[in-house]
Amino acid sequence: SSASPKITVIGLGYLGATHAAAMAELGFEVLGLDVVPEKIRLLEQGRAPMYEPGLDDLLGAHVAGVEGSSGRLRFTDSWAEIGDFGDVHFVCVNTPQKHGEYACDMSYVDSAMDSLAPHLTRPALVVGKSTVPVGSAERLAARIAELAPAGADAELAWNPEFLREGFAVQDTLHPDRLVAGVRSERAELLLREVYARPLAEGTPFVVTDFPTSELVKTSANSFLATKISFINAMAEVCEAAGGDVVKLAEAIGYDDRIGKKFLRAGIGFGGGCLPKDIRAFMARAGELGASEALTFLREVDSINMRRRAQMVELTRDAVGGTLLGKRVGVLGATFKPDSDDVRDSPALNVAGQLHLQGAQVTVYDPKGMANARAIFPTLGYADSALEAVRGADIVLHLTEWREFKELDPAALGEAVTRRHVLDGRNTLDPEVWRKAGWTFRALGRPTA
Ligand code: UDX
C-alpha cells in the first residue's frame, strides 16, 4: 500500500544487493545506490554483482525494467533522489580491515553518512547494517543531527546483519533473529513495520541500545571464530596424539550444549567477515581500555593462521621435502563453497604460499576463478577439477564444494602423476579415495 515505508539501500555488495532484493520481495518500493557504476549497470539488468545462490532470480523478479518483474526495485547514483525517496535508509557499505592494522576502515560508512545526511529533508530513519566498532552508532547519530535539514526528524538506528554468504537470500528473508539498537519508540515501530513478515513468522526481535546492538554482531562472529579455532586446536592435538578430530567433533557435538555446528576442522576460517571482525574487535577493545578481555582472540587468530602454514608443510613433506618444481593440483579457491568470494581465502592463501615456495600450482574452483585470477594472476588455472590435477604430484582439497565430494577418485587417479591427496576440509571420504589407490591425508586425522 502507499502507506508502507519507502526503502533505500546504500551499498550494493553481498549485504546490500541481497537486502534490497529481499525488501522488494517483502513488498516494499526500494531504491538502491552504489558508488560503483558497474554494479548499478549489472543490477539494472536484474543480475547480482557477485555469485550468491538465488539472488539473480530474486533480482529478476523485482528489478524495474526486467520483463515480468514487480518493478519495485530501482537504482540510482543520486543522493538527492535517495533522500527524497526514502522513509527508511539502510546503510550496507563494507568495513574492511585497514592495511597493516587491526582496526577496520570506517571511511565507507562515514562517507555514506556524510553524503546522505544533507539530503534528509523529511522525516527519515537511517539504519546502519554494516559491522562497525562499538561506539560508531553514537558518533554517526551526532553527525546526522548536525547535517540533516530535517533536524530531529532524521534519526539513526542500528540493525546488524548476520547473513552468511551462500545462504544470503534465505538468511535475509528468514533470519534467526533481528536485533535493533534504537533511541526512540518511533524507530522501533518503523523497524517492526519493515520486518513485519519475519516478525509474524515468529523471528525473535531483540530491542536494545546502540552499543549492545553493535556488540551483538562482533561478539557473535568472535564466538563462531572461537568455535572453529577450538576444533582446529584439537586437530593439532589429535595429530600429535594419533587421534581423529572428525570423530572427536562428532562425539562432543552430541552434547547439545556444545552442538555439532561450526566444528569442522580444516584449514580454518577466512572471508570478508570473521578474520577482520575479530581483529577490529581487539583493536576497539584496546581503545576502550578493555584489551585484556579479548586477548584470547589473538590466540583464536593465530591458531587459524597456523592451519594454513601446516597445510603448506604437510604438502611439502608429502612430496619429499621440497616444493621446487612439484606440480600441485588445487581444488577450491573461494573461502567457502557456494560463494565466489576469495577475500582472505585460506585456499588461495595456501595455493599462493606453495607457488612462492617454487611449486607449479594449478587451481580450479566452480565459481571463484575470475576473482582468484584478479588477485593471484601468477597461479595456474584450469577449467575443471580433472584439468587442475593433470600431471599432479599431489592434489589438495581446500574448499568443500559439493562438486569435489562427488568426484570419482578412480577417474582423477588416471590424470595424476602420483595418487596423493590432502583433504584440508575434512569432507572427502578417506575410504573411497584409499580404495581407489590414493594415499589420503587430512589435517587432524590419522594416516592409514
Ligand atoms: C560469517 C557469519 O557466519 C555470519 O553470521 C556473519 O554475518 C558474517 O560472517 P560468512 O563469512 O559468510 O559468515 O561464512 P561462515 O559460514 O561463517 O564461514 C566462515 C569461514 O569459516 C569459512 O572460511 C568456512 O570455511 C570456515 N568454517 C566454518 C570452518 O573452517 N569450520 C566450520 O566448522 C565452519
UniProtKB/TrEMBL annotation:
E.C. no: 1.1.1.22
Descriptive protein name: UDP-glucose 6-dehydrogenase
Keyword terms of this UniProt record: NAD, Oxidoreductase
UniProt key word NAD: yes
Biological source species: Streptomyces albiaxialis
Residue stretches making up the UDP-glucose/GDP-mannose dehydrogenase C-terminal domain: 329-430
Pathway: Nucleotide-sugar biosynthesis; UDP-alpha-D-glucuronate biosynthesis; UDP-alpha-D-glucuronate from UDP-alpha-D-glucose: step 1/1
Gene3D superfamilies reported for this sequence: Cytochrome c1, transmembrane anchor, C-terminal, NAD(P)-binding Rossmann-like Domain
Similarity section: Belongs to the UDP-glucose/GDP-mannose dehydrogenase family.
PANTHER family from the UniProt entry: UDP-GLUCOSE 6-DEHYDROGENASE TUAD
